[in-house]
Amino acid sequence: MLVKSEKGNCYGHGNTQCISDEGIMDSFGRGNLYVDFEIEFKKPDYFSEEQKRRLRSLLPKVPPLDIDRSNEDVEEVQLIEVNLEEEKEKFRAEKIKNQYDEDDQPQGGGPTQCQTQ
Nearest Cα to 87, choosing from 20, 27, 37, 28? Predict the structure, then answer.
């Protein structure tokens, strides 16, 4: 799975993003996959321009990703900004709705009949 995000978007600690329909399969269908970021970034002005230049010269160059996007095994998905509390509430409401729907469905194969001997 190749996860893409908006170009130039920088995620901070505590951000939660969502990948639609890539979560665990349950009786309600496939759920969403939630990505919770636990990272620490220095503020953009933490390093001076000179320090940034020095760091770039010391750190190895990051090679571009070599991903064959035409390969059938590669599925591109998009990160979506999500409010986790709203998602939890939607899930609870859907679960309750489905419980009531199950109550309306007949259990088993119908009424039991006596056999003739």
Answer: 20
SS (H, E, C) 36-58: ECCCCCCCCCCCCHHHHHHHHHH
Q: Is residue 96 part of a domain?
A: no
Domain assignment present for residue 100? The answer is: no
pLDDT in tens, 8-25: 787 878 888 999 888 888
Domain count within the chain: 1
Contacts of 84 (CB under 8 A, 6+ apart): 16, 34
Burial of 18 (0-12, 13-18, 19+ CB in 10 A): buried
Q: Is residue 53 part of a domain?
A: yes
Query: Strands 80-81 and 16-19, how do they pair?
Result: antiparallel
* Region 33-48 average pLDDT: 85
Q: Which residues make beta-bridge pairs with 4? A: 78
